[in-house]
User: Fold these one by one.
Assistant:
Number 1:
Amino acid sequence: MLTKTKQFSAKLFLLFFLIIMMLPAQAQKAKYVFFFIGDGMGIAAVATNQAYLAAINDTSGFQNLSFTAFPALGLATTYAGNRFITCSAAAGTALATGNKTSINTISMDSRRENKLVTIAEEARNHGLKVGIISSVSIDHATPATFYAHQPDRNMYYEISLDLAKSNFDFFGGGGFYQPFGKNGDASISSYDFAKQNGYTITQTRADFNNLTPASGKVIATGNVLESSGALRYLIDQTVEDIPLQDFVKKGIEILDNKKGFFIMCEEGKIDWAAHSNDGAALVNNVLALDEAVKMAMDFYKKHSKETLIIVTADHETGGLAMGWAGTKYESNLGLLQNQEMSLEYFSVLVDSIIKNTPDEVVALTATMAAVKKYFGLDDETRNLQLKPDEKQMLETAFHEAKGTVEKSKFEFYLEYGGNNPVAATAVKILNHRAGLSWGSYAHTGIPVPVYAIGAGSELFDGYFDNTDIPKKIYKAMKLK
Ligand SMILES: [Zn+2]
């Protein structure tokens, strides 16, 4: 028989148990956060990639990417403080700080007077490790909004100095765009200044491979960089390149620790491909982002209760449509596979043909042969015979590339978006044949998708503003 005290304790225990049962289940804190930003990646870019994958794998409809299968899905509006169609600086500031700001401003208020604290800085201040990764230069607007505070995105050198002073643990991907400043006359390079601030810098594959958690603060750049400081388009990469996903994998290896981490990874070349209206380069770079997200998914599978992965975009670029007036209800997205290099690389090739071939007839023949070789256009074995009007478009473009056609600057822009006319026309014909069309060479104002999985992911369901995204991340991380 129980004594009175024992009976009392048993009752108390039962009461306690009941109270605990009645409390709402305490959500797990997101200790490890991955914030992926596909620059310029609208819903049409994602969907085109999914449909392209289905087409080349001989199935219909859409093939899932790692992140299109995430359980939470939202839509975010992207307008800037002083313009409806945003830019990467203002949109990045919204995503990094939860504040609207003016065009071109990097994590400062609209009047460019006060600094805005970023979620990456807040994570650092709470003892988490921080990694910033980008496929374009690491001082470009999107990554910069997470560690820098400057009145203008074009202040690349000043931004690089902010990077070195951030004390963040890992920077990966592209290099610095203007390491000696705008005029190339800075007294110390961005790289040397970062070294002075305790960073280890790697620029080769071998040094990159040797990085370990014991390496200290790291800036790991690609071993093959363009003059812009960016990694090459995925469609132009070879085994020589370090792809974006490797930077995420290495970042995880270096940043993994008991207190947690915050990683922002930008796939910046989705935007560049969209600015060029280059559908094949676009689908490839969405794939590059997907491969990077898969690295985060591998980590998530081991720490699913404490990991949050978000994939979104800062804005849409190009006004991509999955249809074209000329093809009406037809789609043939698999045709994009015929393109073997980016519009950008093909422009260089066409320029060199025109420059090095004085005879016009010979130059035109060589140009058309290159169009056939790298785009499959007029290749009957690939079912891409050119129609007379398409041939005419390419010939006109050839003369325009040679500078022998009278046209206003604006007419040129509307036709080719400032790109090499032949390369732009080859890309346009292939995109149209695939059933794709573009409405702009700039950004557009359409809301962007937000995909999330893991601790706190349910916060990302619904329709909200881009400034709400970091607020939701703070909530999931229980930082504020
Ligand atoms: Zn852009």
Number 2:
Amino acid sequence: MKIGIIGLGTVGLGVLEILVNESKNLKAKGADIEIKYACDLDHDKVFPNNFDKTTLIKNYETILNDPDVDTIVELIGGDNLAKKIILEAIDKGKNVITANKALIAKHPKEIFSRAIEKDVNLFYEASVGGGIPIIAPLLENLVANNILGIRGIINGTCNYILSEMSHNDLEFDTVLNDAMEKGYAEADPSFDIEGIDAAHKICILASLAFNKTVDVKKILTNGITKIKLSDLKLAESLGYSIKLIAAASQNNNSISISVEPTLVNKKDLLSNVEGVFNAVEVEGDYVGKTLFYGRGAGKEATASAVVADIVKAALKCTYKDRHYFNIEEDAILLGENEFSGKYYVRVGKTFPELEKISYQIEQIAEEYIYFTNTIKLKELKNILGNEEYSLLRIN
Ligand SMILES: NC(=O)c1ccc[n+]([C@@H]2O[C@H](COP(=O)([O-])OP(=O)(O)OC[C@H]3O[C@@H](n4cnc5c(N)ncnc54)[C@H](OP(=O)(O)O)[C@@H]3O)[C@@H](O)[C@H]2O)c1
């Protein structure tokens, strides 16, 4: 199979490295892959030793216009040009491999309907959980099950920040700046710390799990920007860690999907997922709970998942239809106002109404922390009114 890789950044270079270094192994496993083109605007990079630099090009159109290329690997990211490239490749009958979660989460109907119409493979294993296999297991190994729920830590940057705050007694801003300097966080980290990246990923997982199309804009999304060291310390003293948890579960006819900072009991396996690691727990009605754990990002881990998809395409996978979720049926999502649960509320004044519904109240300096019994989110927000507050779910 002849491929063209578009985008030789972190992941693209990782993919090149594996394809060049493991070419014999992959061939022995039945996948004969030829890199016909490797495309990036910048050719001044450290390429693997045996990489054939004559394949380097700067204009991706060359790949799209070459009928000899069976498969394109889109690794430039973003959602404008990447979308254009993917749609054009599909139109030309090429398979597409991508790691672009933003694109799949935001435009599944447009992309999948085109791929189904043109009968090409479109694989995106690396879009969620980096190197952790999670999309193929949901579609293949767990297919016998009705999925009851998914819960996970799927943003490594947030998990790294929360772990560093907790282990080194540091405040959020200090760790974020350090993470940006070390390259663990993007130059513009808002996508990660505001929970948007996790929302894209849980959107894809929920769509696959419940076989419906989820509108990413309707997902209840809260990030970690308001979390203080004192929150982590108090949670710890009570037997909890704080994690950014993305969750989706079936709820009668609707699906509740959320990304929320959450107090996770120390006995829960997710509470021990540290640093840049990710973990996804999937519960099926027959299999029970399964846990997928590993490196959720990074050059080699993500490239491992991309190469698996390339191999799948090279092996002329015949179950292509199953890689799409149902784009004919829209998921009905639980509205923000209908969410309920136990909450940890930190606020700068006392609220007698909160006292009545809380099982524990703490005071740290000038702030009050209420641990509420189960309450509707809407009611809680009504009580808090316009007051500044920080809200965490209690698991
Ligand atoms: N990094 C991870 O750990 C990770 C994990 C999971 C999924 N992903 C996904 O994988 C994708 C790639 O991520 P990344 O971290 O590898 O990004 P990256 O390091 O920014 O790499 C993107 C590369 O694409 C190049 N590029 C941009 N426009 C181009 C064009 N018109 N033609 C050719 N090349 C172009 C960029 O070149 P310039 O630098 O010159 O602009 C850059 O080298 C994204 O969708 C991301 O969400 C990444």
Number 3:
Amino acid sequence: MAKKNTIRVFEGFAGYGGASFGLKKANIPHKVIGYSDIEQEAIELYEYNFPNIRNYGDITQIDEKKLPDFDLFTGGFPCQPFSTVGKMLGELDTRGTLFNDIIRICAYKQPRFILLENVKGLLGKKHRPTLDKIISELNRIGYKNVQYAVLNSKNYGVPQNRERLWIFGQLGGLPDGFVLEPPHIELKCRIKDFLDKNPDEGLYRTQAQIDRIHEIRNAPVFDVDEPLCYDYYNRKIRTDGICMTVTPPEHNIMRIVEPMVNGKERLRKLSIDEHFRLMGFILDDKTREIKFPPTLNYTKLGRRAGNGWDVNLVSVLFKHIFSQL
Ligand SMILES: C[S@@+](CC[C@H](N)C(=O)[O-])C[C@H]1O[C@@H](n2cnc3c(N)ncnc32)[C@H](O)[C@@H]1O
């Protein structure tokens, strides 16, 4: 049984459970009454960390009338499927998209809070009508003066340039003076502080592979004084100690450059622990905030990290939100 002040949560599009991990990290009393995801690897990872929570599966198939009550709906909904039906009116039509299912469920269940996340691109000229539609739909079902803000992981303690759009609403409206964006926290660490002490040798590129990167991509000499990030597409070593956005491994945009050893360049992939540290998890000898099922390989786990929420940022955000309500 949930205690009186326990927030009951429905975690939509759960992935590895960014909302659950964030609430846990923020020490906010909560109980997840159910989640929704359809990808096998996400489900395996979620259930390995949060067993015995019911997965309601494909959100389009959920019968909102059969869901238990909850106070908070969370969801980083996929942004690709926005339909352009109705283009002639100059307006995106969200009917038949996953966002519409959030609206359908929340219109019926009327949770007190809704927290959504998406790509920053929704603020751009092209996708702005979609964002306007999202806001107006939330207004329509009772979430007045919804706020949104672009938050960057590097402003909350993790040396990753990861910008995401966050949208938050309260049933009936937000109080006067409410500000969604938490105050920035000075970044006191660099990428080197998030790396493994003894990285697996298998992560390193061979000399032949490094030679090939020089040849094809005209990369700079990998000569650094501390481990830094190499931006594969822009062909630059980032000297600010921050890494670019962690993406699924198949996008292949980031490498770690380490100081040379015996005059030889050292370039490698991120380990899985490093992926997840950069997504805000503490993973050291004493504390392991997320556990990985042995069934999931490097690519699958890396993909979950690249698609996930920065749980450090989420914990800061939840604390900031609930301190104002
Ligand atoms: C951007 S990820 C969300 C990441 C999550 N917030 C986390 O912290 O890991 C979007 C998720 O939506 C899931 N998804 C896609 N279509 C879905 C559907 N029809 N019903 C439920 N989940 C869906 C995907 O499998 C993916 O895990």
Number 4:
Amino acid sequence: MFRFLTTGESHGQCLTAIIEGLPAGLKVNVDKINEELAKRQQGYGRGGRMKIETDRVDIVSGVRFGETMGDPITLRIQNKDWENWTDRMSVSGMPAGAPVTAARPGHADLSGILKYDRTDIRDILERASARETAARVAVGALCKQFLESCGISLVAHVTNIGGVAMTDADIQDWDHYRASEMRCTNEAVEARMKQAIDEAKQAGDTLGGVFEVIVRGSMVGLGSHTQWDRKLDAKIAAAMMSIQAIKGVEIGVGFEYGNLPGSQAHDELFYEEGRGYYRTSNRAGGLEGGMTNGEDIIVKAVMKPIPTLMQPLSSVDVHTHEAVKACRERSDVCAVSAASVVGEAMMAIVMTEAVLEKFGGDCMVDFLAAVRHYKDRIKQA
Ligand SMILES: Cc1cc2nc3c(=O)[nH]c(=O)nc-3n(C[C@H](O)[C@H](O)[C@H](O)COP(=O)(O)O)c2cc1C
């Protein structure tokens, strides 16, 4: 079984992830993990924090001389900013300064302190913060390296920022994407997205948006129709919704299904000698009956606008119950491009889990043999 946990606070000493279940013998490229971490830190509209941190992973267990051994793997990312926060984030003693008491609408602040019986909102916001997603991106980067071994690759791109959206008429330019600050495939749309972010920043406001994750090279039959918790589309939706501020997920044409008759909603099936089964459309987004169908997996997720506003919303002080303006923790104006990197990582994690559930394998040799055997059988079907 593949599983992982993350630990760590936004201004704590470090973030940690413990991963279990990756086969022995996987070659690990640390630079590639750091590249993914850097991508998460970029993006037009990010706040000052990202300028302080240059995330780098330390692998402190489970990898020896560039290969996994089958042991649990521990990844650690140091928080550089911690040095400036020891007076407020120490393990012992008393915190310096006043507690955070003005709860932010749209954040975990109020529900968190009520549920966990805390008096300082910092006890909640430190872990609710999306800083935690750096650990997930590191795990996802390792999963991407594992998936590459069986021909599966992933990419995520931003399709909408605050209503400035890619349309079907906008050409997808993947060369532009590679250099794009917004992880957008169209230069003109990206320019308008940046303008929208500039305007929001000037107004003390924030923006959300939509990103799309595409998984290429998946074999048919990952996930299963046989039980609710084996359905891969359900696992994908849960993984996407677990990302901070993600409030909706679509697979394939998604909510557009509500506007289409059946005759225009499904992907017709064809068969050709030598080629096997094929489709000429992919409205299902690569998933039917909770299983991959061999087409690209297409998942969209919507991110709500960042809850911390520089022109704060009305709120209540949780000590005095007086009407106040919400607190202004240093914050992003828009983080959809960063969220798309996290989305790509979470998809890589779900795909890794699905692939290992299907093929098992304590070591890469056994795993790859099982994949080959299965692909051969499907080719002949
Ligand atoms: C990459 C990323 C960066 C984020 N940056 C911020 C931020 O700077 N300020 C903020 O208030 N919320 C930020 N958020 C969103 C909050 O973490 C999130 O809204 C909050 O934890 C409450 O959870 P919920 O929106 O899922 O209900 C970010 C989310 C992501 C995915």
